[in-house]
Amino acid sequence: MAAEKFDVYSHVTNQIIAQIEAGTPPWRKPWTGGGASVSLPERFNGEAYRGINILMLWATAMAKDYSSARWMTFNQAKQLGGHVRKGEKSATVVKYGTVEREDDNGEERQIPYAKAYRVFNADQIEGLPAEFYILPDPPRDLGTVADPALEAFFAATGAQIDTTEEPRAYYSIKTDRIHMPPIGTFYRAAGYFGTLAHETIHNAEVRIMPRRYPAPVVL
């Protein structure tokens, strides 16, 4: 049986939709701290990615909490003296270009193409020069305060909510608990309660449709 052809356009669309459905999109993270940054993703040589690759790599950096903006292929990491840690998963980026093809009339035409290839973040690679690594931004207390009415509303849902200094918001099926960063580290209270509402919905989905989530995952 022939291998199924990789559809670059479907992959791009599905990855962006999945990131939006799974949590707050990385370009809208409403709290301070953590590895994901709004800086443009860069190739190994410092050249900035463009177009849809920015969104895809932002999404991956947010999900994995990467600090570095640099991405590279397995071979590029090796050329720089580094090596990808065992078990690390690559991200997909897309190269757009054109090739010349002769049409039925014998004329040369530029035919556009899209080719996918795999890259790793510098945080997944050991042995690179020091400038490839960036320390995560520490959470900052902005003094944001909670709305008592909204606090009472979420308390009434019965969802178990843990708050720690970890700059991530998620619902864990394994523990059946929601994790939130401190509200003071959010830019606005609306961002805090909007994020909490999203994680509470995941909590409710698991309770209503447990078969949809057969294995412990973090959402």
UniProtKB/TrEMBL annotation:
GO terms for molecular function: single-stranded DNA binding. It comes from the Bacteria. Residues 149-205 form the Polyvalent protein metallopeptidase domain. It holds the Pfam family ArdcN. InterPro entries: ArdC_N, MPTase-PolyVal. Residues 7-120 form the N-terminal domain. This is Antirestriction protein.
